[in-house]
Amino acid sequence: MKHMTRxxxxxxxxxxxxxxSIATLLAMRNLWVNDQLLNAEADRLRxxxxxxxxxxxxxxxxxxxxxxxxxxxxxxxxxxxxxxTHAFFPTSMADYDLLRQRINTEISSCSxxxxxxxxxxxxxxxAGYWKAQTASAMSISASDTPxxxxxxxxxxxxxxxxxxxxxxxxxxxxxxxxxTVLAHGVMPGSATMLQAVWTRHSxxxxxxxxxxxxxxxx
Length: 218
Description:
alpha+beta, 35% helix
């Protein structure tokens, strides 16, 4: 009887060791999975913070003056002459019509981050729509964000609020701006897209109001 007991001891011990090893491997796998999930969530939050930090940069772009500090013309706020084809922020419907003539193509209605779409495209609230046209976006430089060069891009869609061709300094601004930001995460292929609608309080005002703010998905 004692001989039979000793015969079962070794297999029992081996089974217990095997079960302990499996339990250890399962625990290590769970730790690895949780670590990956935590890293992904942290990267998503970092990208979201980058996108949020890019919004004031886009607003500053909209509110920029017609001249740089050195006295040269700021082409993002001046239509220029008839030979020029750059995108700019319009201040009247005549400017808006000129902008549309310049940048509307079969591929995109944006150039250098300024867009003048004909209509509200349902696809423009999908992340994939903007990821496919990053060449038409405005890149944020390291001087404008603590995250470094080319870590975020943005597009500013300009929509007419009414058909007014001219406006006074105190009248309601003729345009509504929809800003879309693409911020890259640290992990390969990760990105967050944020979209918001903004309007100025008046044509001469340097402040405005947010009307919506949401993350884009596919």
